[in-house]
Design brief:
- By secondary structure, this protein is of the alpha/beta class.
- It has one domain.
- The protein contains twelve helices and eight strands.
- The strands form two sheets. Strands 4-3-8-7-5-6 form a six-stranded parallel β-sheet, with helices on both faces.
- α1 crosses α5 and α2 packs across α12.
Length: 264
């Protein structure tokens, strides 16, 4: 698997974009019950505050530096080049790779409308891609029977890659909970379903390079996101600044040992 580097309390995978795509497709082809997290600032602050969620993130087989600040922290503290590997870029790259390799995919999350638009685009642009199933679960915790039925349906479809869009931290907890029960590589991609389906626009590349994507998301959903961004962005800047001061003073803070994610 890809080498990991610590950012705050979390271990983030490193490599070129093609390395991430190849590693995830390889996990899918092996039918290992693996999971992939796309880590942005919000996710790292969740991990910093909640030890159980930190374990979920650190035990993931692959953790992409989804946020530009996360990739920048790797470059700053570990002195190695690292591009941002965003879920919104990873989803189309993996779908293209799966089509070329003859691998199958399943979409889990969001709504029937979004899933229909998602499948429609793949059928038009990637006719060789085999989409073996979709599921839009209710926006509430599933009963044990409902969850068992969803797992049975996914395993009956037998996908190589299972894309999960339930939002952070729900999707990461869901993937960790189902590791060992679902025979696929699970990838948490959050809002990427909406963007790929064409139901939500994405900022142009120049604006993303200026780290403005959070501001655009805040503009789209101010009532839901203003508290999150006010707190998590400020907290991340504070924690990184404190680590940087310690780092420059020759007193880097101790990091937990890098976990080894099992292949189940």
């Amino acid at each position: 698997m890809l080498p990991k580097r610590p950012v705050l309390d979390s271990w983030i995978s490193t490599g070129q974009p093609s390395d991430f795509v190849d590693a995830i497709l390889t996990l899918g082809a092996a039918r290992s019950s693996a999971y992939v997290c796309c880590a942005n600032v919000h996710m790292l602050i969740e991990a910093h505050q909640h030890p159980d969620f930190r374990s979920i993130l650190n035990e993931a087989n692959v953790v992409t530096p989804d946020g530009s600040p996360v990739a920048a922290a790797i470059r700053l503290f570990h002195r190695q080049p690292q591009a941002r590997i965003a879920g919104m870029d990873l989803l189309p790259a993996l779908l293209t790779g799966a089509a070329l390799r003859g691998q199958t995919v399943y979409f889990y999350g969001t709504t029937e409308t979004v899933l229909a638009a998602l499948v429609d685009r793949t059928s038009r642009e990637l006719p060789a891609l085999r989409v073996v199933g979709t599921c839009a679960p209710p926006f509430r915790p599933l009963t044990p029977d409902e969850d068992a039925a969803a797992v049975a349906a996914i395993n009956a479809a037998d996908p190589d890659l299972l894309f999960v869009a339930l939002g952070c931290p729900r999707q990461e907890r869901w993937m960790a909970q189902h590791q060992g029960h679902i025979r696929a590589c699970m990838i948490g991609v959050g809002q990427a379903f909406m963007v790929y389906a064409g139901l939500e626009n994405r900022l142009p590349y120049w604006a993303r390079r200026l780290w403005l994507e959070w501001a655009y998301r805040l503009w789209l959903e101010p009532r839901r996101l203003w508290r999150r961004y006010l707190y998590t962005n400020s907290r991340f800047v504070y924690l990184i600044s404190r680590r940087l001061v310690a780092h420059l003073a020759g007193r880097p803070q101790p990091q937990a040992a890098q976990p080894t994610a099992p292949l189940v």
